[in-house]
Write a structure and sequence with these properties.
Blueprint lengths: L1 H6 L17 H11 L9 E4 L6 E4 L8 E10 L3 E10 L1 E3 L3 E4 L4 E4 L3 E5 L2 E5 L1 E3 L3 E4 L10 E3 L6 E2 L9 E7 L2 H17 L4 E5 L4 E6 L2 H14 L4 E3 L3 E2 L2 E3 L4 E9 L6 E11 L6 E5 L11 H12 L12 E9 L7 H18 L3 E14 L3 H10 L3 E8 L2 E9 L6 H8 L5 E11 L2 H12 L2
Helix pairs in contact: 5-6
Length: 450
């Protein structure tokens, strides 16, 4: 009865135990086997056929075409780069050639390993429903689909939130400088929510993540696993820019260099997108006013211009761009000219469309004894928090709030001092929202100074 109710999603089973003290672990594992669905209990998995764009299904059957999803990448100091994957259909052997349909690249599996806590067991084959780690997959990352090259399928990818906090990082010594690049590459491969970039203007390496604690953990891993000591700057909030009204803009890139010149001319329509929609590009050119071979160059120019906004150099998001019109020259037009024209038009259009800034909002849950509730609520109110509710867990009060990320730096120290060290909190990214006019000018000035 419990199994049937669990399979129907009518009950949630709760077991007590402690991993630290190895209490209740075996009953938990037995309950997973006894009450949770096996691969055979679920319907066939759906994906997209990359050749046709239509929905394709894969049954949980060893005789079906092979399909798997990579869900973790680890840099092991003894065996190298390990890609963990879960087989959804079919089977795969060691040293087999597979297709990474996400990146449209063929790869060859090396050894296949089944991981058992602190030891590994080499296997020759993995079947539907199985989980294994593979060596030799150089171009496969978290969320990629692996499949039979003759029967391609694209499974639903794992979607990761964008980083919301950035800090500048620099090595402490020359020896650290030689190792820091390799450490950052490996950490980026393992963690899709961790990003690095090099700022050409300041000459700094910038690392970005999901919060202060996230970056602190990664820096500690750099020190412990890669023996890299690094200094970091003050955390910076990852603001975004967006537009608030539709507009139309024209971009011309016309140059004459004596001989052949450069000619590109585009007309773009810009519209605000739904919050979280990112960037959408539509081509509405009719009657050949711009040859189709130049359309990708216009889109590339627009995407490049979106990387640095017009208010404070933050990325532009949640915008719909439509290529509406333009013109070309039979001799002088080129991909470079139309790329530049697209970039110019986008910048000009954003300036006209009443741009504003978006700030990341975090979902915060604070756990505190009742006698400290008032002090913590007062502090959250001063941090522009929106209190969504206050719950009760025994003698503990749980505050559910939405707080701007920029107001949370150093909060771990503050909440401990307000509660004599007895309150704790957890925090995760929730959404982006428009910045209040009172803070807009202050952030713009600070962003331009970066």
């Amino acid at each position: 009865a419990l199994r049937r109710a669990s399979l129907a999603n009518k009950v949630v089973l709760v077991l007590c135990g402690s991993a630290l003290r190895n209490k209740g672990i075996q009953p938990l594992l037995d309950a997973i086997v006894d009450y949770l669905p096996s691969p055979l209990d679920v319907p066939p998995f759906e994906g997209i056929d990359p050749k046709t764009g239509k929905v394709a299904t894969r049954p949980v059957d060893e005789a079906a075409p092979f399909s798997a999803l990579a869900f973790k990448v680890v840099s092991d100091p003894f065996v190298g780069r390990l890609v963990y994957f879960r087989v959804y259909s079919g089977k795969v052997k060691a040293k087999a050639q597979v297709l990474n349909s996400t990146r449209e690249r063929k790869e060859r599996l090396g050894r296949l390993l089944q991981m058992h806590a602190n030891h590994r067991e080499e296997v020759d084959e993995v079947y539907a429903g199985g989980i294994a780690a593979a060596l030799g997959l150089k171009s496969t990352f978290t969320g990629d689909t692996l499949c039979d090259p003759s029967k391609p399928i694209l499974l639903e990818a794992i979607r990761f939130p964008e980083p919301v906090i950035s800090v500048a990082i620099e090595p402490k010594t020359k020896a650290d400088q030689d190792r820091i690049g390799n450490a950052l590459v490996k950490l980026t491969e393992e963690d899709p929510t961790f990003e690095t970039c090099y700022d050409q203007e300041t000459g700094q390496t910038i690392i970005s993540g999901m919060g202060e604690l996230h970056l602190e953990v990664l820096l500690e891993r750099m020190r412990r696993e890669f023996r890299v000591e690094a200094r970091t700057g003050k955390p910076q909030v990852a603001y975004k820019e967006t537009i608030t009204q539709p507009t139309q803009a024209e971009g011309r890139f016309i140059k004459q260099f004596g001989g052949r010149g450069q000619y590109g001319h585009v007309v773009l329509k810009l519209e605000p997108g739904e919050r979280g929609s990112g960037f959408a590009f539509t081509n509405q050119i009719r009657a050949g006013s711009i040859p189709k071979e130049f359309i990708p160059a216009v889109k590339a120019g627009v995407k490049e211009a979106l990387e640095r906004g017009v208010l404070a150099n933050y990325p532009i998001v949640d915008i719909k761009v439509t290529l509406h019109d333009g013109s070309f020259h039979q001799v002088d037009s080129s991909e470079l000219a139309f790329k530049m024209a697209g970039s110019i038009a986008l910048k000009e259009g954003v300036r006209r469309a009443k741009p504003t800034l978006l700030e990341p909002i975090m979902k915060l849950d604070a756990f505190t004894p009742e006698q400290f509730l008032g002090d913590i609520l007062g502090d959250l109110d001063a941090r522009r928090a929106h209190i969504e509710g206050i719950g009760v867990q025994g003698d503990t009060r749980v505050i559910h709030a939405l707080v701007p990320l920029g107001e949370t730096f150093g909060y771990a120290t503050i909440i401990r001092s307000l509660s004599q060290g007895r309150a704790t909190y957890s925090m995760e990214f929730h959404h982006y929202q428009e910045l209040s006019p009172a803070l807009l000018e202050q952030i713009i000035i600070g962003g331009r100074a970066m």
